[in-house]
Design goal:
Length: about 110
């Protein structure tokens, strides 16, 4: 029955979707001619820390996009944060004094990247 399900997927992405799903990665949508597969992302680690930091600082409307690019064998990763408003939207709920806040070991973290 599951093989029948895979038969309904466009041929160009079918085996990649099968590979991802067989290894526990949930695919949400895919397109052969656009050459993409969208997968479910479990919010963990660094991205969760960035989200909690922004939310606890009073920001309420933003998106965090994760970019991982493998090109010629080299991996480049980054995140893009897009804010609906650059000002803190909920200052009464902010638990961080932004004037005094500093990221711990930021110079050390930059050297390790």
């Amino acid at each position: 029955m599951i093989d029948d399900w895979y038969e309904r997927i466009e041929p160009g992405v079918r085996e990649i979707v099968r590979l991802l799903r067989d290894n526990g990665i949930n695919t949400e949508c895919y397109c052969d001619h656009e050459k993409y597969i969208q997968c479910q992302y479990i919010n963990d680690g660094f991205i969760r820390e960035v989200d909690y930091l922004l939310f606890n600082a009073g920001f309420r409307n933003y998106s965090i996009d994760l970019n991982l690019i493998r090109e010629d064998g080299h991996l480049r990763s980054s995140i893009n944060i897009k804010f609906q408003e650059l000002a803190i939207e909920d200052p009464d709920l902010s638990c961080i004094d932004l004037e005094k806040y500093k990221i711990k070991n930021s110079k050390k973290n930059m050297k390790n990247k």
